[in-house]
Amino acid sequence: MSNSLFRTKKIENILAEGSDDPHGGGGLKRVLSLRDLTFFGIAAILGAGSFSSLGGAVFHGGPGVVILFIITAIACAFTAFCYSEFASRIPVAGSAYTYAYASFGELFAWIIGWALIMEYSIGNIYVAFSWSDYFTSFLDKLGELMHTNLHIPDYFSNSYSEVKNAIKEGTTNSGMLYAWNNAPVIGGLRMILDIPALVINLLITYLVYRGIKESRNFSNIMVILKLLVVLLIIVVGGYLVFSNGLTFNWTPPDDSGTKSFMPNGFSGVMAAVSGVFFAYIGFDAVSVLAEESKNPQRDLPKGMILSLVICTVVYILLTLVLTGAVNYRKFDGVGDPLAFIFEKDNLNVGWMQFFVSIAAVVAMTSVLLVFQMGQPRIWMSMSRDGLMPPVFQKIHAKYKTPSFATIITGIVVGLPILFTDKTFVLDFTSIATLFAFVLVCGGVLLIPRREKQQGRFHIPFINGQFVFPLIVAGAIVMAASLSKTYFTDMFNFDFSGNEDYTSGKISFMDAATPNISLIIFWLSAVILAVITIVKKYSLIPLMGLITCMYLLTGMTKSNWAWFLGWLGIGLIIYFLYGYRKSKLANK
Predict the structure, then answer these.
(1) Is the pLDDT of residue 517 over 50?
(2) Strand partners of residue 32
(3) Per DSSP, what are the bridge partners of residue 189?
(4) pLDDT in tens, 153-175
(5) pLDDT tens digits, 494-507
(6) How many CB atoms lie within 10 A of CB 499?
(7) Which of 63, 64, 75, 540 could bridge across to 547 with cysteines, CB 3.0–4.6 Å?
(8) Rounded to an integer, what distance in angstroms lies between the CA atom of residue 8 and that of residue 313?
(9) 3-state DSSP call for residue 171?
(10) DSSP bridge partners of 259
């Protein structure tokens, strides 16, 4: 049985299945150019991360969160090279799922395919909530300009879970209190639901269902608009920071009163991992569009890397503007950070708030579009392999889209909008994506090297035999030099001196999880270094693997608990259906 669990698919078979031959009603249309793929990457990356989760990241890490953006960008760059290598070799829909099938085998392919549901579908729930927040804010501001009431009642613009949790925690937020006290009651149940989030999910699902050309044209327009407005935010905000002499906000005092770029220390910066990494989620979605690309071997790698570089520069500039304009402590609970800095009590530029609202609505619409396109194509690939019912690979005869899978994706995103909230979804999505990145980087190490071919991307081979062990050794020395008790503290699980732990505010496992994660990380790094000396692994995928593993150490106990629970459900489905129905099992 163990051999059958790790049965791999030959690359030539995957390519044959993903060619232009019919798959239940015709193949997908190859219409996407390098520009289109780059724009899709920017559309996916530059959205909820910059317009929503960036506020929480700044609050945790202070101005020093810029360092985490750079670390995360480096990790994503290494990962992008690995995705590009796979995309060049296997230019078909399926992304990391297909790559894992060719390298690790069926069980890991299923696991990664199941995890990608968390990235695309669950991630879109967060984006839909954020879109709703900015859209209602935009209507309010537009109503003020037009001297009319365009306000959507709070009980129809917030999720039931969000309002209930706010009331339970004793919030003083007037909107939440109003929603709870004034919501219509039917059958004893308060009718509190986020109607804008539900409506945008329905509209995006319809657009994706209609076709790739329509989606491409709409996405390109959205990207151009939001880049123009983001550039305006950077220019106006940056000018006001320097002209008003606010650069002192980049070195705020820490608890001891000492001015510091990292007032909460590096541990505070790492606490922002979920928010920062969520900002980068999306560049890998480009690889899902392989079967709709004109020249996937050349254009997919370039599209991923170009979109990643452009968005990294934008994020660093935005973070510097935010932390310069307002003291980082003010971003606690701020869901619209880019609009927040232009409020009356801060930079006081009312017209910029209006532009930010427009940009946010546009930006998050494009994110919804790309993620809603990605998920059906993952399911389509899994269905081709027999791991999901055949209906998921059905392609619409007229629109040439995976029609059934697209409708199911809309339902999977729409239903949880009724009973979840943003905080839960944010952490849930980030850990799943990091896990997928780890497997993609590891997968590149397992596939054989190939001869260079003209017009195709090749990951630069740098022999890591001695370089990688030296990097690991250097990291160990650096960690030990920063704190003499760094490594001994990892194995110290006595939290009697921890006020939060002893007061009962956090559990033993809450406090122990970072230690356990770090122990696993360092053991894995040492083992990888030893294996690399023997196997002579390529340095770039090694660096992608190790940096993504390090980012996972910033995840909390609840992140891991939900993630492992989700994987458990996936494994049950796999053994009940996929393991028996797999096409490889029936050959």
Answers:
(1) yes
(2) 293
(3) 186
(4) 989 998 888 888 777 776 656 67
(5) 544 444 434 444 44
(6) 9
(7) 75
(8) 39
(9) coil
(10) 253
Cβ neighbors of 557 (< 8 A, separation 6 or more) are 507, 509, 510, 512, 513
Task: Say how far apart CA 302 and CA 33 lie, in whole Å.
Answer: 11
Q: What is the pLDDT of residues 312-351, one digit of tens each?
A: 899 899 999 999 999 998 887 676 788 888 887 788 887 8
Round to whole Å and give the CA distance between 275 and 427. 8
Amino acid at 21: D
Q: Return the amino acid letter for 362.
A: V
Under 8 Å between Cβ of 359 and 135: no
What is residue 147's three-state secondary structure?
coil
Q: Count of residues for the chain?
A: 587
Q: Say what the pLDDT of residue 389 is.
A: 93
The 3-state DSSP class for residue 464 equals coil
The pLDDT assigned to 391 comes to: 93
d(CA 274, CA 139): 30
Confidence of residue 22 (pLDDT cuts 50, 70, 90): very low
For range 543-563, the mean pLDDT: 85
User: For residue 284, which of 99, 68, 468, 484 has the smallest C-alpha distance?
Assistant: 99
Bridge partners (DSSP) listed for residue 463: 538
Give burial (CB, 10 Å; 0-12/13-18/19+) of 245: exposed
Q: Which residues contact 290 (CB under 8 A, 6 or more apart)?
A: 18, 87, 90, 91, 92, 93, 94, 296, 300
Burial group, residue 10, by CB count within 10 angstroms (0-12, 13-18, 19+)? exposed
The rounded distance, in Å, linking the Cα atoms of 363 and 361 is 6
pLDDT score of 7 more than 90? no
Q: Distance between CA 214 and CA 342 in Å, rounded?
A: 35
Average pLDDT on 70-80 reads: 86
Q: Whose structure tokens read 């909820």? A: 48
Q: What whole-number distance in Å separates Cα of residue 160 and Cα of residue 157?
A: 10
The C-alpha atoms of residue 471 and residue 88 are separated, in whole angstroms, by 29
Residue 342 contacts residue 257 (beta carbons within 8 Å): no
Whole-prediction pTM value? 0.77
Q: What is the DSSP letter of 172?
A: -
Tokens at 421, concatenated? 């909230």
